[in-house]
C-alpha cells in the first residue's frame, strides 16, 4: 500500500468571506491556513497533494501556495468547473456557484488510484488529525463493505461569533462508528447552545454544543469515486431543476446514503487539537492569534517551506 494522498477542497468562491480566502496570509511570513495543513500532512506521512481549484485561480494559487509546496511533496491540480456535468445535462442559465463537495471529489477521477484524505482549504484541523487519518488509511482496506473514516469535532469548538456556519451533524454508535450525518447549512451560536434552520430562519432547531460534527475531513478508498459518479448523475436528474442556481451535491449527504444502504462503514476518529477556520473576514484576527500561539509553543517553525 502506497502513501496516502491529501486532497484539498479549494474551489469554493469565498462569498461570505469576500475574497479568495484560501490564499489569504494568516501570519507575518505569508503562510496561509492551507500551508499549515499540508505541513502537518507531510509530517504525518502523506505522499502527495491534490488541489481542487477553479481554473481561473490557477496562476494565483500556484504562485501563493502550490509552487512552494511542490518542492517538498508531489502536487497535482484538478479543476472543478461548471461545465463538468454528466452527459445529457446543461448548465442552468445564470448558474455561477460550484456544484458542491461531492462533485469536487468526483473531479479527481483519473487522478486518484489509492487511499486518500479530504480536507477544506480554509480549516485548521491540527497535527493529530492528520496522524489519525494516516494511521487509518495505511491499516484499512475495503472488504465486504467500503471502509471509510472521518475526524469528528464538537460543534461548540467549530462555531464563529461572526455569523452562521455549515456543518455535517453526526450521530455515532457506542463503537465509534457513524450512524447518520445530516448537512446543516445554517447553524448559529445561541445563548443556550446552538441551533440550525432549514427555512431561512423562520424556525430554529436547538443543538447541543457537544454534538459531534464533520468538518469535511475524510478518509476514503478509491471506491468512493464510482459511488460519487452515480450520486452526481442522480443529483442532476432529480435536484438541479428544483433549485438551478444554488443546489449542491454535498459529500456528507452522499456518505450518509452509503451508510443507510449498508454499503459502507465510517469510523469516527478524534483529534486532540482545536479546530479553527476563516469563514468571515472577522474570523481572521483570532486565527492569526492562534497560529502565533502554536508557533510560540514550538508546534511549527517560524518558516514552513
Written description of the protein model:
- The structure is a single chain.
- This protein is of the alpha/beta class and 305 residues long.
- It has one domain: Alpha-Beta Complex (Spore Coat Polysaccharide Biosynthesis Protein SpsA, Chain A).
- Helices cover 26% and strands 25% of the residues.
- The protein has seven helices and 13 strands.
- The strands form two sheets. Strands 1, 2, 3, 4, 6, 7, 8, 9, 10, 11 and 12 form an eleven-stranded mixed sheet that branches. The protein has a two-stranded antiparallel sheet with strand order 5-13.
- It starts with a strand and ends in a 9-residue tail after the last helix.
- The relative contact order is 0.19.
Give the CA-based shape: globular
Give the quaternary arrangement of the chains.
Answer: single chain
Output the CATH homologous superfamily. Answer: Spore Coat Polysaccharide Biosynthesis Protein SpsA, Chain A
Instruction: Count every helix, treating DSSP H or I runs of 4 or more residues as helices.
Output: 7
Mean pLDDT: 92
Domain module count = 1
Give the topology, please.
Elements: E1 5-9, H1 33-44, E2 48-53, H2 58-69, E3 75-79, H3 101-106, E4 116-120, E5 123-124, H4 127-137, E6 146-154, E7 165-172, E8 178-189, E9 194-196, E10 205-207, E11 212-220, H5 223-238, H6 251-260, E12 264-270, E13 276-277, H7 284-296
Parallel strand pairs: 1-2, 1-4, 2-3, 6-12
Antiparallel strand pairs: 4-11, 5-13, 6-11, 7-8, 7-11, 8-9, 9-10
Helix pairs in contact: 1-4
Amino acid at each position: 500500500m502506497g502513501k496516502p494522498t491529501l486532497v484539498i477542497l479549494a474551489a469554493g468562491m469565498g462569498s461570505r468571506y469576500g475574497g479568495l480566502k484560501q490564499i489569504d496570509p494568516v501570519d507575518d511570513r505569508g503562510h496561509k491556513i492551507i500551508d499549515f495543513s499540508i505541513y502537518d500532512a507531510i509530517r504525518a506521512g502523506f505522499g502527495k497533494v491534490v488541489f481542487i481549484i477553479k481554473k481561473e485561480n490557477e496562476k494565483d494559487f500556484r504562485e501563493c501556495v502550490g509552487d512552494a509546496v511542490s518542492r517538498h511533496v508531489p502536487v497535482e491540480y484538478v479543476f472543478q468547473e461548471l461545465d463538468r456535468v454528466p452527459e445529457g445535462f446543461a448548465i442552468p442559465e445564470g448558474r455561477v456557484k460550484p456544484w458542491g463537495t461531492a462533485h469536487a471529489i468526483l473531479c479527481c477521477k483519473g487522478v486518484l488510484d489509492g487511499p486518500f484524505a479530504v480536507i477544506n482549504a480554509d480549516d485548521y484541523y491540527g497535527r493529530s488529525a492528520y496522524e489519525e487519518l494516516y494511521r487509518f488509511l495505511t491499516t484499512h482496506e475495503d472488504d465486504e463493505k467500503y471502509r471509510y473514516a472521518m475526524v469528528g469535532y464538537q460543534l461548540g469548538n467549530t462555531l464563529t461569533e461572526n455569523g452562521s456556519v455549515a456543518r455535517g451533524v453526526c450521530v455515532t454508535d457506542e463503537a465509534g462508528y457513524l450512524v447518520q450525518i445530516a448537512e446543516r447549512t445554517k447553524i448559529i451560536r445561541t445563548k443556550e447552545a446552538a441551533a440550525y434552520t432549514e427555512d431561512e430562519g423562520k424556525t430554529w432547531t436547538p443543538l447541543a454544543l457537544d454534538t459531534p460534527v464533520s468538518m469535511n475531513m475524510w478518509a476514503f478508498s478509491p471506491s468512493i469515486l464510482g459511488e460519487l459518479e452515480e450520486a452526481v448523475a442522480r443529483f442532476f436528474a432529480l435536484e438541479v431543476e428544483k433549485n438551478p442556481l444554488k443546489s449542491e451535491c454535498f459529500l456528507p449527504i452522499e456518505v450518509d446514503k452509503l451508510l443507510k444502504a449498508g454499503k459502507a462503514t465510517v469510523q469516527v476518529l478524534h483529534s486532540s487539537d482545536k479546530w479553527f477556520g476563516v469563514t468571515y473576514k472577522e474570523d481572521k484576527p483570532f486565527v492569526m492569534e492562534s497560529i502565533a500561539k502554536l508557533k510560540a509553543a514550538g508546534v511549527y517553525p517560524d518558516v514552513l517551506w
